[in-house]
Design goal:
Elements: E1 2-6, H1 11-19, E2 30-36, E3 39-47, E4 50-56, H2 65-79, E5 86-89, H3 94-99, E6 103-108, E7 111-115, H4 120-126, E8 135-140, H5 147-157, E9 162-167, H6 177-188, E10 194-198, H7 220-240, E11 242-248, H8 254-266, E12 273-277, E13 281-282, E14 285-286, H9 289-298, H10 301-307, H11 310-320
Parallel strand pairs: 4-5, 8-9, 8-11, 9-10, 11-12
Antiparallel strand pairs: 1-2, 2-3, 3-4, 5-7, 6-7, 13-14
Helix pairs in contact: 6-11, 7-8, 9-10
């Protein structure tokens, strides 16, 4: 039996995954497969610190193939410094992944999130500074941190005793997780009741949530949001006395807009209010990170400067030589 490492989008991998009822995920960096006489018997993929697309031919289950795949994927991740790993899977696969060293974090409908560190989430929460409530939270990507993000933070901080700003820890897009976190921390130093933290993968986003194991791919956003609610309301809120979650209005992206609506429906019954703050506009046009990225690509630094705080502009010029 041979171990292959290959792109996820190769025809044999796609064919095998579809034969197992899975849709190949275009975001996966690579796939490890076990083959016998050229036939794929099992495979699994890595996307950042998320393991995806684990599948074993039913005729070969019970032979330890999943464990061999997981060992190879772990080694590949560890070589790149990724020690904390997550798996999204169906709840019926819980025992399989427990046997591979993963521990459940949250379940919602057809999806379960697990991590490879026992007590990792609790240790993360224990390391956060605690403040007297009522406290609020904002979850943002900030690629990069704009005047719109700063306005949202400012408005939210004025409505609670303490505001936790969580920055998604995803290594995707134009800016690294460390760069985005640095820009947000620089931009929030002026607010005495605000602290900024990386999510370390514990708060879910549509970017990381895989829909490959859902029959209805349009349901991915809903399931992702439900998992987010379970993590936020079930673990974050009790630990940090969170009573409010703040959202920015989303005039352009229908997926994010639907995500906001689902949060507004699901969080209040869990004892967490949701405040949606109107998006900051400039000459009638919403300020957005995508506008900043477009200006950066075109070298329009004067436009960039008009859309971001001075702290972000300084960071961008240092990083990109503007």
């Amino acid at each position: 039996m041979e171990l292959w490492t290959e792109p996820t989008q190769t025809w044999p991998v796609q064919q095998f995954l579809r034969s197992q009822g899975l849709e190949p995920d275009p975001e996966a960096e690579f796939t490890v497969s076990l083959r016998q006489d050229g036939r794929i018997l099992a495979c699994g993929s890595l996307d950042g610190n998320v393991i995806k697309g684990m599948a074993v031919d039913p005729a070969f289950r019970g032979q330890g193939l999943a464990a061999r795949l997981m060992t190879s994927l772990r080694q590949a991740a560890f070589r790149q410094g990724r020690r904390k790993l997550f798996v999204y899977t169906k709840p019926e696969n819980e025992l399989l992944f427990r046997g591979l060293g993963f521990f459940p974090l949250a379940t919602a409908g057809e999806a379960m999130l697990l991590e490879n560190v026992r007590g990792g989430l609790q240790a993360y929460l224990d390391n956060l500074d605690k403040h007297s409530g009522p406290c609020g939270a904002v979850v943002m990507n900030c690629a990069p941190f704009t005047n719109g993000h700063r306005y949202l933070v400012e408005q939210a901080a004025g409505q609670c005793a303490w505001l936790y700003v969580f920055v998604l820890s995803e290594e995707k897009g134009m800016f690294s997780a460390a760069q985005r976190l640095d820009m947000v921390r620089r931009g929030c130093r002026a607010y005495a009741n605000v602290s900024v933290h990386p999510t370390d993968g514990y708060l879910i986003s549509n970017a990381t949530f895989p829909t490959y194991f859902l029959k209805d791919r349009w349901a991915g956003g809903e399931i992702s949001c439900q998992l987010d609610v379970e993590m936020f309301a079930g673990r974050f809120a009790p630990a940090l006395d969170l009573k409010l979650r703040f959202l920015g209005t989303e005039p352009a992206d229908p997926v994010t807009r639907a995500y906001n609506e689902t949060l507004k429906a699901l969080l209040p019954p869990r004892g967490i209010g949701v405040q949606e703050i109107p998006r900051l506009t400039q000459q009638g046009v919403p300020v957005s990170a995508s506008r900043v990225r477009s200006a950066l690509h075109a070298g329009r630094w004067a436009e960039v400067q008009a859309l971001v705080p001075e702290t972000t502009f300084d960071a961008l010029t240092q990083q990109m030589g503007g």
